[in-house]
Design goal:
The protein is an alpha/beta fold and 214 residues long. It has a single domain, classed as Rossmann fold, CATH 3.40.50. Strands 5-4-3-6-7-8-9 form a 7-stranded mixed β-sheet. A two-stranded antiparallel ribbon has the order 1-2. Helix 1 packs antiparallel against helix 2. The longest helix is centred in the first third of the chain and has 16 residues. The radius of gyration is 16 Å and the shape is globular. Bound molecules: S-adenosyl-L-homocysteine. The site of S-adenosyl-L-homocysteine has 24 residues, from strand 2, helix 4 and strand 4.
Length: 214
């Protein structure tokens, strides 16, 4: 059972208004944020601050992304219903749920086992049928490729070539690129050999690490 009180609903509505004020315009993104109960993805001790526009701890030294960042990245994806989306960095499963709520078919990878286990069970409880995988997102999911869209929710130092090759021609990769801080990029795969890169401001993410890093 998911406890979603009037108080949670009110705080969520206020969050959506805040995101609109901060420049999010895509109605389908705002609607999804207005529906997905963010507090369910957090420890109950954080219930009171679950709808603040802040990144919050989720264990394993990781964070649930700030709602503005979730909305911003999702807006850049420009989702159409039923598109196949690969997410790198399941974390809490919140961004995954926003994508599912927007009717994407979502595949998501997480490298921390406890987070993968918990997100998978919360998503199931919420009846979102995202496919969760435990492993190294740098490698993607070649057996389910190609994807219409790919979203990376951790800071990458490079554009992972395996992920580019798993993207459809015409597809879009949204990736925060950089070491200490990141610049948000939207990369459109124009042809098999041509990428168009657009920049969208500075963000701060936990790092994207490969299976040998800790
Ligand atoms: N989308 C998440 C954000 C979590 S933070 C949410 O809504 O909660 C980013 C996550 O990326 C962390 O959980 C981290 O463990 C994970 N991550 C980092 N490098 C990764 C990799 N190479 N493959 C898969 N997941 C990775």
């Amino acid at each position: 059972m998911i406890a979603d009180s009037f108080k949670h609903k009110g705080l969520r509505k206020a969050l959506v208004e805040e995101l609109e004020r901060k420049g999010i315009t895509d109605i389908s993104v705002l609607e999804a944020i207005g529906v997905v109960p963010r507090h369910v993805f957090l420890d109950s001790s954080l219930d009171n601050i679950a709808y603040q526009d802040k990144a919050l701890p989720i264990g394993c030294d990781q964070t649930i992304s700030q709602p503005f960042t979730v909305a911003f990245q999702t807006e850049l994806l420009d989702l159409k219903p039923n598109e196949k989306v690969l997410e790198i960095g399941t974390g809490s499963g919140y961004q995954t749920s926003v994508l599912c709520q927007m009717k994407a078919r979502v595949f998501t990878i997480e490298r921390h086992k406890p987070l993968y286990v918990r997100a998978q069970s919360v998503l199931k409880l919420m009846k979102y049928n995202a496919k969760c995988y435990f492993g190294d997102g740098y490698k993607g999911l070649p057996s389910y490729a190609p994807f219409d869209k790919i979203i990376i929710t951790c800071g990458a130092k490079i554009i992972p070539s395996d992920l580019v090759s798993q993207l459809k021609v015409g597809g879009v990769l949204v990736i925060p690129l950089g070491d200490q801080t990141q610049v948000m990029y939207r990369i459109t795969k124009k042809t098999d050999s041509e990428l168009v890169k657009e920049k969208f401001g500075n963000f701060k993410f936990v790092p994207m690490l490969n299976d040998k890093e800790s």
